[in-house]
Amino acid sequence: MNIEILPISAQFDAQICTIIKTVGAEYGAVGEGFGPSDAEVLAMSQHYTKEQCSLYLVAFIDGEIVGGCGVAPFNGSQQVCELKKLFLLPKSRGKGIGKTLSTQCLTFAQQQGFQQCYLDTLNTMQSAISLYQKLGFEHLSAPLAGTEHNGCDVWMLMSLNDI
Protein backbone atom coordinates (compact mmCIF):
# COMPACT_ATOMS: atom_id res chain seq x y z
CA MET A 1 0.00 0.00 0.00
CA ASN A 2 1.47 3.31 -1.14
CA ILE A 3 0.20 6.38 0.76
CA GLU A 4 0.84 9.82 -0.68
CA ILE A 5 -0.22 13.24 0.59
CA LEU A 6 -0.36 16.30 -1.67
CA PRO A 7 -1.72 19.84 -1.40
CA ILE A 8 -5.12 20.30 -3.04
CA SER A 9 -5.14 21.40 -6.68
CA ALA A 10 -8.02 22.07 -9.06
CA GLN A 11 -7.76 18.60 -10.62
CA PHE A 12 -8.78 17.06 -7.25
CA ASP A 13 -11.67 19.43 -6.44
CA ALA A 14 -14.52 17.28 -7.79
CA GLN A 15 -13.30 14.08 -6.15
CA ILE A 16 -12.65 15.64 -2.74
CA CYS A 17 -16.06 17.35 -2.89
CA THR A 18 -17.72 13.97 -3.43
CA ILE A 19 -15.75 12.42 -0.55
CA ILE A 20 -16.60 15.26 1.86
CA LYS A 21 -20.31 15.08 1.02
CA THR A 22 -20.43 11.25 1.09
CA VAL A 23 -18.60 10.87 4.40
CA GLY A 24 -20.52 13.81 5.86
CA ALA A 25 -23.79 12.06 5.01
CA GLU A 26 -22.50 8.84 6.63
CA TYR A 27 -22.32 10.75 9.94
CA GLY A 28 -25.44 12.88 9.52
CA ALA A 29 -23.59 16.09 8.66
CA VAL A 30 -26.07 17.16 5.99
CA GLY A 31 -27.55 20.59 5.35
CA GLU A 32 -26.97 24.06 6.76
CA GLY A 33 -24.66 24.26 9.73
CA PHE A 34 -22.36 21.43 8.66
CA GLY A 35 -18.99 21.57 6.88
CA PRO A 36 -20.01 19.49 3.83
CA SER A 37 -22.57 22.18 2.95
CA ASP A 38 -20.00 25.02 2.93
CA ALA A 39 -19.67 26.69 -0.48
CA GLU A 40 -15.89 26.10 -0.45
CA VAL A 41 -16.44 22.34 -0.77
CA LEU A 42 -17.22 22.80 -4.46
CA ALA A 43 -13.74 24.21 -5.22
CA MET A 44 -11.42 23.56 -2.28
CA SER A 45 -8.31 24.49 -4.26
CA GLN A 46 -9.56 28.09 -4.58
CA HIS A 47 -10.05 28.46 -0.82
CA TYR A 48 -6.90 26.83 0.52
CA THR A 49 -3.79 28.67 -0.62
CA LYS A 50 -0.61 29.77 1.09
CA GLU A 51 -1.58 33.38 0.33
CA GLN A 52 -4.66 32.84 2.49
CA CYS A 53 -2.50 31.20 5.21
CA SER A 54 -4.44 28.02 4.58
CA LEU A 55 -3.68 24.49 3.40
CA TYR A 56 -5.79 21.53 2.35
CA LEU A 57 -4.07 18.19 1.93
CA VAL A 58 -5.37 15.27 -0.10
CA ALA A 59 -4.49 11.67 0.75
CA PHE A 60 -4.03 8.92 -1.82
CA ILE A 61 -3.72 5.17 -1.43
CA ASP A 62 -2.15 3.54 -4.47
CA GLY A 63 -2.97 6.62 -6.56
CA GLU A 64 -6.64 6.85 -5.52
CA ILE A 65 -7.94 9.84 -3.52
CA VAL A 66 -9.30 8.61 -0.18
CA GLY A 67 -9.77 11.84 1.75
CA GLY A 68 -8.29 15.06 3.01
CA CYS A 69 -7.89 17.61 5.79
CA GLY A 70 -7.29 21.33 5.92
CA VAL A 71 -6.43 24.27 8.12
CA ALA A 72 -7.37 27.92 7.64
CA PRO A 73 -7.68 31.11 9.71
CA PHE A 74 -10.73 31.08 11.98
CA ASN A 75 -12.89 34.06 10.99
CA GLY A 76 -9.87 35.90 9.59
CA SER A 77 -7.93 35.64 12.86
CA GLN A 78 -4.15 35.78 12.77
CA GLN A 79 -3.90 33.95 16.12
CA VAL A 80 -6.54 31.21 15.84
CA CYS A 81 -6.86 28.78 12.96
CA GLU A 82 -9.35 26.00 12.37
CA LEU A 83 -8.72 22.38 11.49
CA LYS A 84 -11.26 21.73 8.77
CA LYS A 85 -12.89 18.98 6.80
CA LEU A 86 -11.01 15.87 7.85
CA PHE A 87 -12.97 13.30 5.88
CA LEU A 88 -11.71 9.83 4.96
CA LEU A 89 -13.38 7.04 3.02
CA PRO A 90 -14.03 3.90 5.11
CA LYS A 91 -11.32 1.88 3.35
CA SER A 92 -8.67 4.41 4.40
CA ARG A 93 -9.54 4.60 8.10
CA GLY A 94 -7.36 3.06 10.79
CA LYS A 95 -4.18 3.40 8.76
CA GLY A 96 -2.82 6.57 10.41
CA ILE A 97 -3.80 8.78 7.48
CA GLY A 98 -6.01 11.06 9.57
CA LYS A 99 -3.19 11.56 12.06
CA THR A 100 -0.69 12.30 9.30
CA LEU A 101 -3.00 14.78 7.58
CA SER A 102 -3.87 16.53 10.84
CA THR A 103 -0.27 16.71 12.04
CA GLN A 104 0.92 18.19 8.74
CA CYS A 105 -1.88 20.77 8.84
CA LEU A 106 -1.09 21.72 12.45
CA THR A 107 2.62 22.06 11.67
CA PHE A 108 1.76 24.33 8.73
CA ALA A 109 -0.49 26.42 11.01
CA GLN A 110 2.26 26.78 13.58
CA GLN A 111 4.67 27.89 10.83
CA GLN A 112 2.11 30.53 9.78
CA GLY A 113 2.24 31.98 13.29
CA PHE A 114 -1.09 30.75 14.62
CA GLN A 115 -1.20 30.30 18.41
CA GLN A 116 -4.27 28.08 18.73
CA CYS A 117 -6.28 25.71 16.58
CA TYR A 118 -10.04 25.25 16.88
CA LEU A 119 -12.30 22.58 15.45
CA ASP A 120 -15.92 21.57 15.59
CA THR A 121 -17.33 18.14 14.88
CA LEU A 122 -20.13 15.74 15.76
CA ASN A 123 -20.26 13.39 18.72
CA THR A 124 -21.03 10.58 16.23
CA MET A 125 -17.47 10.94 14.87
CA GLN A 126 -15.88 9.15 17.83
CA SER A 127 -12.74 7.97 16.04
CA ALA A 128 -12.02 11.54 14.91
CA ILE A 129 -12.62 12.89 18.43
CA SER A 130 -10.24 10.27 19.82
CA LEU A 131 -7.60 11.35 17.29
CA TYR A 132 -8.07 15.02 18.17
CA GLN A 133 -7.65 14.27 21.87
CA LYS A 134 -4.44 12.34 21.17
CA LEU A 135 -3.15 15.32 19.17
CA GLY A 136 -3.71 17.61 22.16
CA PHE A 137 -7.13 19.16 21.51
CA GLU A 138 -9.24 19.83 24.60
CA HIS A 139 -13.02 19.98 24.77
CA LEU A 140 -14.81 23.32 25.02
CA SER A 141 -18.26 23.75 26.58
CA ALA A 142 -19.43 25.91 23.66
CA PRO A 143 -18.28 26.85 20.16
CA LEU A 144 -15.98 29.80 19.61
CA ALA A 145 -17.95 32.93 18.78
CA GLY A 146 -18.35 33.22 15.03
CA THR A 147 -18.37 29.54 14.12
CA GLU A 148 -20.45 28.87 11.02
CA HIS A 149 -21.17 25.25 11.88
CA ASN A 150 -24.08 25.53 14.29
CA GLY A 151 -25.04 21.91 13.59
CA CYS A 152 -21.94 20.61 15.35
CA ASP A 153 -22.10 19.52 18.98
CA VAL A 154 -18.41 19.00 19.84
CA TRP A 155 -15.95 21.89 20.01
CA MET A 156 -12.23 21.59 20.70
CA LEU A 157 -9.18 23.84 20.97
CA MET A 158 -5.46 23.26 21.26
CA SER A 159 -2.39 25.39 21.76
CA LEU A 160 -0.02 25.16 18.83
CA ASN A 161 2.88 25.75 21.21
CA ASP A 162 2.46 22.13 22.26
CA ILE A 163 3.32 20.50 18.94
From TrEMBL:
Q: Which SUPFAM superfamilies match?
A: Acyl-CoA N-acyltransferases (Nat)
Instruction: Cite the entry's keywords alphabetically.
Output: Transferase
Give the superkingdom in one word. Answer: Bacteria
Q: Which GO terms describe its molecular function?
A: acyltransferase activity, transferring groups other than amino-acyl groups
Question: What InterPro entries has UniProt attached to this entry?
Answer: Acetyltransferase_Enz, Acyl_CoA_acyltransferase, GNAT_dom
The keyword rRNA processing appears for this protein: no
Q: What is this protein called?
A: GNAT family N-acetyltransferase
